[in-house]
Amino acid sequence: MRIAILGGGGFIGSHMVEHLVARGEHDVVAIDLTREKLVDVPESTFTFHEADIRQSPALVERTIRESDLVVDLIAYANPSMYVSSPLEVFDLNFLQNLEIAKLCIKHGKRLIQYSSAEVYGKTETGGAYFEDETDFIFGPVQKQRWIYASAKALLERVLFAHGVAGDIEYTIIRPFNFIGSRIDYLVPAGAVGGPRVFPHFMSALLTGGPIQLVDGGHVHRAFLHIEDANAAFQTLLDNPDATRNQIYNVGNPANNVTVRELALTMLELYEELMGERAASEIVEISGTAFYGEGYEDSDRLPPDVGKMRALGWAPTRDLRTTLRETMSFYLGAVGSAPGIAAPAIPGASRSQRVAL
Fold first, then answer.
1. Is the pLDDT of residue 342 over 70?
2. What is the mean pLDDT of residues 313-332?
3. What pLDDT, on a 0 to 100 scale, did the predictor assign at position 353?
4. Rounded alpha-carbon distances, angstroms, from residue 147 to 10, 71, 141
5. Side by side, which strands form the sheet with 47-50?
6. Residue 307: closest CA among 240, 221, 236, 228
7. Domains of the chain by start residue, with CATH
8. Residue 293: helix, strand or coil by DSSP?
9. Can you tell me the distance from the alpha carbon of 153 to that of 150, in angstroms, rounded to the nearest whole number?
10. For the segment 329-338, what is each residue's pLDDT rounded down to a tens digit?
11. Which pLDDT score is estimated for 187?
């Protein structure tokens, strides 16, 4: 089978390419702005096109037409952009992704669409998020932070409608805080905005800068090891009939902690891995000061993953293992990636912001 991965050079995409290439069962073709996260994957084992999907419609259509399965990872997954560039976020996360879905319909291709845990918004159920039952609740229009979630949710609804009409076979994945090596990009000490929580905290530990807790760090997040995420993807890949036109939470409810607890655990693991206390200190900062006007957060609930478990998948790595292995990549310490030097700390490049 020929599998096209749009956004194959990003965090999730690069690990997915590695996973598929290692198994050697399929032909893999990836499109993204850069393959810098794939430098360790031999070029002879897969096909990579360095391109912007917005400027390369002929390439995108040809790739989809010549593939059996399309995996769409294209997204801006950067909270600061939701308030600073909401129209750009909507254009990429909905309009451009909708064009990909239309091409899958046109050429009769199965689509695995990566959505987001953010579609649940501010929902409070008292327990967990269920794919086919939980209501979505977003903040007011003035809180532009929700344009990302709204775009993702609208895309899901359009795919569902096309599925009911018999136009397309799709599977939607709602990722819950995947982390692992090569996640996002690192930032200068004390920087505000930018990537997701783990890279900010990791950057602080590497530089001795402050670990900034937005609004006190009281919201919850459930973290999943990227290898468990790859196993979930493989499970869906292996069960096309059972997963046709279905939505799946992919996460680890057992790894649900507050952001403050995440910071404290990373401080403990830094000392364990490096043999010395971190110079970083925890400080608090408001969401408006960190992300900008229009930011709002939610106390996210853990996912129910019963639908994935019914397919035979289950997460295998607890939080400390997940964090230890991910931190080891950056620290070059004892762990899953010994001897790997800590990466440089660049600014946010456009390529690093586009793909998941």
1. no
2. 96
3. 36
4. 22, 23, 9
5. 47-50, 27-32, 2-6, 69-72, 110-114, 170-175, 246-250
6. 236
7. 2-354 (3.40.50.720)
8. coil
9. 5
10. 999 843 333 3
11. 82
For the four alpha carbons of 140, 287, 197 and 76, in that order, the dihedral sign comes to positive
Q: How far is CA 191 from the centre of its chain?
A: 21
- The set of residues, in sequence order, having a beta carbon less than 8 Å from that of 42 and lying 6+ positions away, is none
Q: What pLDDT, in 10s, does the model give residues 62-104?
A: 999 999 999 999 999 888 899 999 999 999 999 999 999 999 9
pLDDT for 355 equals 52
Tell me, letter by letter, the H, E, C secondary structure of 188-245: CCCCCCCCCHHHHHHHHHHHCCCEEEEHHHCCEEECEEHHHHHHHHHHHHHCCCCCCC
Q: Residue 356: pLDDT band by 50, 70, 90 thresholds?
A: low
Please identify every residue annotated as catalytic: 148
Give the residues across from 47 on adjacent strands. 29
Distance CA 30, CA 3 (A): 8
State whether the Cα torsion 41-45-46-50 is positive or negative.
positive
First-to-last alpha carbon distance for the chain, in angstroms, is 23
